[in-house]
Amino acid sequence: MRRWFFALGCAACSAVPPVQEPTARQQPRFDADALLADTAALLEVPRVLGSDDRAQGLNVLTHRLTQGGATVVVQPFTGFDPLDGRTMPLANLFGVVRPEAPRQFVLATHFDVRPWAESDPDPTRRDQPIPGANDGTSGVVVLLALLPRLVDALPSDVGFTIVLFDGEELGRPEHGGYCAGSTHFAAHPQDAPPSILRASFGIVLDMVGDAELNIAKEAHSTTQNPALVEAIWRTAASLGERSFIDATYPHAILDDHVLLSRAGIPSVLLIDYDYDAWHTHADALDRVCGESMASVARVVFETVLAAMPGSG
Fold first, then answer.
1. pLDDT band at 310 (very low <50, low <70, confident <90, very high)
2. N or C: where does the chain have the smaller number of CB atoms within 10 Å of the terminal CB?
3. Sorting pLDDT into bands at 50, 70 and 90, what band is 131?
């Protein structure tokens, strides 16, 4: 995933309560070795767009969401290759926790793996799927780690949805077609869990496992939910997480957060796009780091707890 999108769209306002200082009681341990091991395990799960065994991958992800404490709602749709028009069955997965709770938020990422490696230095391998350790797996690993911890930590009047979008990688350079899953969701919200549309904010993760992680602020995010962006960076600073840098990317990035905001959920993107293995066969396990994913998990966990304080 690395796409420039210059026109800032769908401005929305959202207030996020001031960040509370994290406490030892609130902060669970996110084990870097366990996160890296889970990355390795998920790399064996079929998720390549267009592959014949993707149903197995969907079953595994559904089980993992259920195991973490969520009820899974599937939103099937048809994707197509914008280059040749070939169609393929796809599905968004919504892991819903406490849908009747009055306060709601969304955490999202994409789980699909790119079937082409158009940026690979070897032209003979550019029509083969990438491994997708960072781009397509790291965000899933972080959200699966956050899910049971948030279930335990949040008060009963707070519900949330973990969204695993499909088809984010379906696009082609110069042809578009990216973010197919979130585009479908924004166009057909009636097919998604009703509670998601009551969410007050969303956080989207993409490529958060780089061993040299540096996450800057993204322009769509600062337009769509500036208060949440500032809350995330204040939280990172309070935790001493140096992977969140005080800078803004020079160009806005089209990702699933844009479509979530279009659907009425003001959302932000956490991404490190300065990744030289992007869309190549080098995007493998040896290019990601468990501590990078743990850092993002800690920041998201504390930000969410601050934004959704206990009901007393």
1. confident
2. C
3. very high
Nearest CA-CA partner of 39 in 278, 207, 261, 220: 207
Report how far residue 62's alpha carbon sits from residue 47's, in angstroms, rounded to the nearest whole number: 13
For the chain, give the longest Cα–Cα distance: 61
**pLDDT category of residue 49 using cuts at 50, 70 and 90:** very high
* Residue 30 CA from chain centroid, whole number: 17
Cα→Cα distances 216→211, 247, 268, 269, Å: 15, 5, 12, 10
Geometric angle at alpha carbon 248, from 243 and 253, rounded to 5°: 100
List the chain domain ranges.
32-307
Residue 163 forms beta bridges with which residues? 94, 108
Cβ 109 vs Cβ 179: under 8 Å: no
**CA 243 to each of CA 73, 116, 155, 216, 219: distance values in angstroms, whole numbers, following the listed order:** 33, 29, 29, 9, 18
What distances in angstroms separate CA 134 from CA 119, 161, 241, 269, one per listed residue? 15, 22, 19, 15
Q: Is 90 exceeded by the pLDDT of residue 146?
A: yes
Whole-model pTM: value is 0.91
